[in-house]
Write a structure and sequence with these properties.
The protein is of the alpha/beta class. It folds into two domains: 63 residues, Alpha-Beta Plaits; 158 residues, 3-Layer(aba) Sandwich (Rossmann fold). It is 27% helix and 32% strand. It is built from eight helices and 14 strands. A seven-stranded mixed β-sheet has the order 10-9-8-11-12-14-13, with helices on both faces. Strands 2-3-1-4 form a four-stranded antiparallel β-sheet, with helices on one face. Strand 5 and strand 6 form a beta hairpin.
Length: 271
Amino acid sequence: MRAWRVTVDAAEEDLVTAALWEAGTAGIEVQPAPGGRVHLLAYFEGDAATPALALPPGAAVEAAEVEEVDWVARFREGFHAFHAGRFLVAPPWDPATDRPSPDTLVVDPGRAFGTGTHETTRLCLAALEGLAIRRPLGRTLDLGAGTALLAVAALRLGARFVVASDIDREANDASGRHARLNDVRLAVVRADGGRGFRPGSFDLVLANLMTLLLVDRAPEIRALLGPGGALLLSGLLVDDLSCVRSAFAPCGTPTVLVDGEWAALVYEGVT
């Protein structure tokens, strides 16, 4: 890997950042520079030559040393226990996990499949709490489970049986590991969306996915619910609410939860 330091006026940061992404950068760090300027430290795979960029006047490009960094270890250093509604989300090295309670969710960040820190996960946890107050969660499917943090939370909230499903083999491994860390029993399944399950099999489906995937897979996701089931959709921006609601219109009128620019939809009594 090679790195290049591009120094520009702060006002040109967005323009040059876009140009670096188009040139194939693997990642960019933004660092302050004197005189109202910024350093854009851009990383490129392999022995890349100086990127060909149309730079604004006064910009400078120079090679930069690539620091060997264990990014997982660095992330762990800054990852501490935090509250998300009734739950305390904590890494396994935090003292809070020495005496775990039913309101503790243990998460071990590795490749980031979901640590609870993102707004979409917090929205899901809040929605799950509300659902559990109003109705039994019953048979639950966490679709695109990642770490299975939501699946574990569903069990903590009384779900009778929970499936953590993901097409990514590493995510399946992460789901199994988090079941063990939280001392719960999950059915971990490797499957492509809802295609691996019999229609009408679940009382609750959780889908914290990207908007495009939610819209594209809407018919198969809807089909997973049994009569009167509940559906929790997250991973969408507020600006995407209308297209997701349209795709799931047969499920009725949802409750909308918002956290900043992110949103979640909760459907109940789906027929």
